[in-house]
Write a structure and sequence with these properties.
mainly alpha
């Protein structure tokens, strides 16, 4: 996933919208730190998906 601030042209694209709980967003996608960029893939894919 790409953040809307740096990639406004991708903000509403279907491939950039992914449902996630807060914990999944933080730990799976950002590796425990919201300041980490994800650049389209989870930083910690070992964290299970909640959905």
């Amino acid at each position: 996933m790409y953040n809307a601030l740096d990639y406004p042209q991708l903000a509403d694209k279907y491939f950039n919208i992914y449902p996630a709980t807060r914990d999944e967003h933080l730990y799976r996608w950002h590796g425990g730190n919201f300041q980490n960029e994800t650049l389209g893939k989870p930083l910690n894919p070992l964290v299970p998906e909640d959905f």
